[in-house]
Amino acid sequence: MGIIGKSEIRKDVRLKVTGQAIFVDDLSFPNMLLIKVVRSHSPHALIRSIDPSLAENVKGIVAVLTYKDIPGANVVPVVLMDQPLLAEREVKYVGEPIALIAGEDREAVEEASRKIRIEYNELEPLLDPLMAMKKESPKIYGKDNIFSHHKIRRGNIEKGFERCDLIIEHRYTTSYQEHAYLEPQGMIAVPYEDRMLIYGSMQCPFYVQNAVSHVLGLPYGQVEVIQTTTGGAFGGKEDVPSLVASQAALVAFRTKRPAKLIYSREEDIESMSKRHPAVIDYKSGVTKDGYLNAVEVEYLLNAGAYSTLSPVVLWRGTVHAVGPYKCPNVKVDSYALATNTVPCGAFRGFGMPQVTFAIESQMDELAHKLRIDPIEFRLRNILRKGDRTVSGHLIKGNMELERTLREAARIGWKGEKRGSNGYKKKGVGVACNYYGVGLGAEGRHLAKAGAWVNVLLDGSVNFAVGTTEMGQGMETVLSQILADELGVKYERVSMIPTDTTRVPDSGPTVASRATVMSGNALIEASRPIKRSIRGVAAKMLKSPRAQVKLKDGYALAGAKRIDIDDVIGECFKEKKLMSSQGWYKAPHTSWNKTTGQGKPYFVYSTGTNIAEVEVDMFTGEVMVKKIIAVHDVGRVINPQTATGQVEGGALQAVGYALFEDMISWRGKILNTNFSTYIIPTSEDTPQIASVFVEDPYPEGPFGAKGLGEQPLIGVAPAITNAIFDATGIRIRDLPATPEKIIAELNSHR
Amino acid sequence: MGIIGKSEIRKDVRLKVTGQAIFVDDLSFPNMLLIKVVRSHSPHALIRSIDPSLAENVKGIVAVLTYKDIPGANVVPVVLMDQPLLAEREVKYVGEPIALIAGEDREAVEEASRKIRIEYNELEPLLDPLMAMKKESPKIYGKDNIFSHHKIRRGNIEKGFERCDLIIEHRYTTSYQEHAYLEPQGMIAVPYEDRMLIYGSMQCPFYVQNAVSHVLGLPYGQVEVIQTTTGGAFGGKEDVPSLVASQAALVAFRTKRPAKLIYSREEDIESMSKRHPAVIDYKSGVTKDGYLNAVEVEYLLNAGAYSTLSPVVLWRGTVHAVGPYKCPNVKVDSYALATNTVPCGAFRGFGMPQVTFAIESQMDELAHKLRIDPIEFRLRNILRKGDRTVSGHLIKGNMELERTLREAARIGWKGEKRGSNGYKKKGVGVACNYYGVGLGAEGRHLAKAGAWVNVLLDGSVNFAVGTTEMGQGMETVLSQILADELGVKYERVSMIPTDTTRVPDSGPTVASRATVMSGNALIEASRPIKRSIRGVAAKMLKSPRAQVKLKDGYALAGAKRIDIDDVIGECFKEKKLMSSQGWYKAPHTSWNKTTGQGKPYFVYSTGTNIAEVEVDMFTGEVMVKKIIAVHDVGRVINPQTATGQVEGGALQAVGYALFEDMISWRGKILNTNFSTYIIPTSEDTPQIASVFVEDPYPEGPFGAKGLGEQPLIGVAPAITNAIFDATGIRIRDLPATPEKIIAELNSHR
What we know:
The structure is a homodimer of 749-residue chains. With 749 residues, chain A is of the alpha+beta class. Chain A is 28% helix and 26% strand. In chain A, the strands form 8 sheets. The first copy, chain A, has a 7-stranded mixed sheet, with helices on both faces. In chain A, strands 7-15-14-13-8 form a 5-stranded mixed sheet. A 5-stranded mixed sheet of chain A has the order 16-17-27-28-31, with helices on both faces. In chain A, helix 6 (205-216) links the parallel strand 10 (195-200) and strand 11. Chain A is globular.
C-alpha cells in the first residue's frame, strides 16, 4: 500500500469546511486602514487635473494618493513594463486606477471616493482588435498597437494547399471569460520594522515581491509576501495581485500603517483581467484520404489597454494552434493587440481554449465534408510517439493521445446518444487537445523551483515550496509525494503557507507546473534526509543500508521493521541532517522566433473530450447531458483531486461554451456580477465521466505530468461539435447562447 | 579592505534608536485577550481548593484556567521535567503559577485575580541549601533534595595536600543576581488555522516550540515560534520563555483567540529565574615556590523549587571550578539543591562567576601568603598550549591566557594606582578566567546549527539562522561573516527574524555559541551559492574560475572586475542555485561522569581583568575607577560590538560585585523593582579599557571563538582583590556592600 495513487483526504478540507481557514478579508491588524481605488470612468482620456481636497476633508480619511506619491517606479512589472500602477496623464480603460483613498472605515473611503474631482479631456476609444490592426487606426501602444507577434513557419504553405483535395476556411470568434473565483482580489500590506509584509490572495508571491519592491523602491530582501488561504484563482491571481498588492503597499508605506484593500465583486469584474476575446481565421486542407496537409492560421487576441501577460498567453496559443495533429505545411501568425478595454491576462488554458475551439471545429467540419467519422479522421492525424509537432518537436514518448481518443470513443461515441426526443435533438461531439506542461521556452528563465523539508523531533514533517495552493489540491498532492518519498504517514506531513522568504524564487504557480516542479524539488530536498534516516535505521535494524526501505511510517529490512518515529528520534540524538533544501530546473526547451520551430515544452499532457448534448429546438437552449473526459497526465497522484480538477474544468468550459457572455458598451463591462454574468450552477452540471490513461512520465515526480488547465481546454468544441451533430448548426462564435442558436436555426429553415 | 574586523554599524541600531523596532508588547492582534497569572503567596503549601467562580463573574473575563485545562502534559520541559506549568496539589515557591485569568482588558484581569479563591494548607518551607543537604531535612525533591551532582577526580587529593607547603581553606558565598533585562518577559499566542503561532521575547525559539507542543499536545509541525525584537536576555530568556509562552498558548488554545501575556517588572523579578546563590568551600595547597598542587572544592547551588537548567549550570561551574590553572590533584563535588525558593537558572556566565569569584579570591590569598606578586603567581600556574586542564583536556592551541595576563599587567598593574587619597584608599586587583565555548559535552546533542542563505535577483541577501539577536550583536556579526564570505556589501545583507520554521532546530542561543555555530552554518550555506556566482563571473570576466575572487561588491580576476549585482543578475538568467541551507555540528566533546575527565569543551576563550578601586573608609562605599579587560576570543569580527559586550559585561559584574543584593523573607523576594534592587548606572561606570589579544581559531568562522559571557565572569574577584589591596579586607561574600565593608573594617580596628 503506497500513498501515491491513493485518494488521501485533502489537506485543506477540514479548515475550509469548518470555516477555520483564514482568507485575506478574515485577517486584520491593529490600526489598519481601508483602501478604496478611484478609477477611470472613461475608456480613453487625458487627465486634466485631480483635486483631492474635498476627499481629504472627509472625516476619517488619512491619505489620498496619486502617482506622485510613488517612491519607486510607477509600473506594474509583468512582461513589457507598460502599465502604470496609477495613471499619470492618460487613462486607457474604464476601471483604470487613478488614486487611492485610505481611511479609518468603509463609509469614509466611499464618501471620499465620490468627492475626489478628476477632470478629463475625452479621447476617441479604440475598442476593436480588428480596428487596432488597421494602419489608419489611432495608436495607443507603440507604432502599430501590437504588443506581441508570434509565428510558425513549417514546410511550404502554398505548395501544401496546392496538394490538398479539400480546403475549408472560416473565422472563429470567442468572447471574454471571467474567472469567477469565489474570493475576489484582496491584499493587506503591513509595515513591520524595516520590512513590508504583504498578505493576500494570490498565485505568484514572487511576482508580488518583485512588483512591491519596484513600486516602493525597496530591495527584494525587505519585501516579504505571504499567501493567505486563497479562494480560487484560475489564472486571475497570476499577475493581477501584483497590482492590488502594490496599491496596498503604497498606502502602508506612506501612512506607516497596515492597509487593507479588498475588491468588491463588481470592481473585480470590471477592472481585473479575463480570458482574451479572440478572432481566429483558419484555413485547412486535407488529402482525400483524410490527412491534414496544410493549415494556415491568423490568431488575434484583444489584449486590452496594457500588455500584462498577453505576449505569453499568445505564445502558448500559437504553439498549440494546429492542435495535437501532424501537418507538414503550417503557417501561423498571431497578434496581441492593444485596445481601450480592460487588460486581459492569464486564465486556465492560457490562450489555448480559443485556438482549440477553432481547430477542433475545423477538424469536425473536415471530417464531415470528407464523410469520415470524426474519431477515425482524428486517428489518422493525431500525434504519436515518433511524430513531430508543427513546431518540429520530435515526440520521444509520453504522448498517449491515441489511448485517450480510443477510450473516450469506446465509452461514449456509439449507441443511443443521437436522434430526437420530441422537440429536443440529441448529438455527440468530440475534441482532442494536447497541452505543453509548464512555462515552456518563452518562460524558461522561470522554469525552476525550490523546496524545503524539515523533519521534526516528534516525526512530524513540515515543508515549504514556492508554488501555491489555490484550491487546486497542490498541498495534498505534494504532501503525498513527500510522505511517500520519506516513508512517513501522510498525516504527519504539513505544508507551511507559501511565502517568499522560505524558498528561492520558484516562478509562478501556473501552467499546470506545481506538481512537476515543486514535486521534483521536494524529492530533491528529501534525499539527504532519507540518507540520514536510512543510515540510522540500518544500524538499528542491524541490516545493510541497501536493504532498508522507508514506507508508511516504518523502516523495514526483510522481515524486521521499526517505527520511523523511533528512527527519527535517534537521528536527532546523532545530530543528523534532518532538514534540507531542494532545487529543480525543468528540462531544456527552445524556440526559434523566426520559424516557430524548436522544443517549446518538455512534455505534453493530452486528452479527449466527448460531449453529449440535447438542444431544445424551440428555445435554442443546450443541455450538456454528459462529458466523457479522458486524460493522459502521466501518473495520477490523487485520483479524487484529479477528478475534481477534471469536473471543475469541464464545468467551467460548459460556461465558456454556452453561457458566459460578457457585455460591454464603449469599453465598460455591463454585467459585473453573477446575476447578469451567468456561470453554470449545479442545475447545468452534466454527468462527467473522468477517466485517466496512466503512462508514467520518467522526469515527473512518481511519473506525474500536469493536469490543472487541460480539463477546460477541449470541452467547448466537443459541445459545439455535438450541437452540430444534433442540429446541423455550426457555431463559430462562442458562447453558443440560445439567441445565436435560434438565429442559426431560423436562417436554416 | 575586508569586512571582518571592521566596526560596521549594528544592523539593529537604526530601528532601535528611532523606535521602529517592534517588541512583543508593541504587537497586538484583533480580538486579543490579556492574561494575568495567579501565583502562590506561600513558599510551600498544599492546595486545598481553587474557586474561580467570583473571578469568572467579573465583567470582561473570558476564561479562568487551571492545570485541569491543559490538553497535553502539565510540564515545562527543560532537563528533568519536574516543573508543572500550573501547580496541581502543591506549591513550592512564592510566585508559582496556579491559574491563568484571561480577559478583555487589564482592569478586568486584575480585578478577577483578586477574586479567585485559593485555600492552602501551609507547610514548613525549606529555604537554605545547606539545610537541604542534611539527612534530617524535609524532602521537596527526590530522596535527598539533590537535583544534580557532578564531580572531578584527578590525581590523589590526600597525597597532593601532603606535599603542599601552604594550604588555605575558606568558604565563599554569593547572592542572587537579577538579569535586569530592559524588556520584561512577554509572549503572544495566536491560533492561526490549525497552527499555534507564538510571538515573543526570547533566546531559544526551539525550546519554546518544544514546550508549547508538549503542553498543548500538538505536533511540533503545528507550533511556529517567532522571535520579536528582544530587549536583553542574559540567560533570563533561555528556559523561562517556555513557561511564559505555554501560559499564553494555553489561553489561546482554550479560547481560540490571540492572547497576550506581559509580565510586570515586579512579577518578573519575583518569579523568574536568576543567578544561583552559591556556597563554595575551597581548600587549596601550593608548594613554596608557588605552584598549585592540590585543590578541593565543594560547590553548592541553591537551585530553588524546580531544577530548570540547574544541572547544566552546575556542570559548567564544576568544569571550571579550579580556574584556568594547572593542578595535578583535584577533587570537586558540586550539588544543585532544591529549596522552597524561586527557581534559578541560566545567567551570563552560567555557574562560572560564582566559582571564579572563589578560586580567584583563593589565588590572591595564596599569592599574598607566599609573598609572590599576584600576576607572577598566576603566570606560574596558568594553562598554556601543551598543558592539561583539571579535566585532563590537553590544550593543543588557542589558549592565549598568558598574553591577556601580560597585556593587562602591562597596562594597569604598576604605577600610581595604590595608596591613599585622604580617607579614600586605592587598590588594584587581578583575576584570570577561561571559558569553554558552546554547550560542551553535557549539551552535545544540541551542538548543531542550521542556516539559510537566499541571494535575491537585485543582489540583496536574506539569511535566517536558528540562534537569536537579543541585543548582543549577533545579527551584525553574522551579517559581516556572510557579506565577506559572499563578497557582497554589508549593507545588502539582512537577517530574517528568527523563527522555528526557517531552519532546523539549531539549539539554544546561549554559551557564547551564536558566532561559532551560526557563523559556520552560514559559511556552509554560502558554498554552493559562491560556486554559482564564481562560475558565472569566470565566464563574464573571461578568466579561469580559480582566479575569481568575490569581494566588497565585486567579482575580480586580476585587474578585471565587475559589479557583483550584474553577476547575480546573470546567475538568475541561468537559473543557478542562489539559495542554500548550511548545517554545522560542533567538534567532538566528551565527559566521564565518574572522574570528571574528558574533553568537556572544544575550545576555550580566556581573559584577564584588572580592577582599580577606591574605597571610602568612612562609608564603606567602593568606587571602581577602571577595569582593564583583556580578552582572547579568537578573531574579533566587529571591534565595536565586541567592545560593547566587554563594557556591558564588566558593568554587570560591577553590580554583581558591589550592589546587587536580593533580599528575601521566607522565600519571598522583597526588592522587586529597581528602586530597591540596585543595579549600576552611568554614575557607577568605571573607565573600561577593553583590549583583544587576537589568535584566530581555525575551526571558528574567520577565526572567531565566542565572547558573550566571558566579560562578566572574572570582574567581581578582580574588584574584591583590589578592595583587599586597598584596605587589607578580604570579602568572601558577594556583593561587597558598604555595610559588609564597614563591618569588616570595624572588626579589624
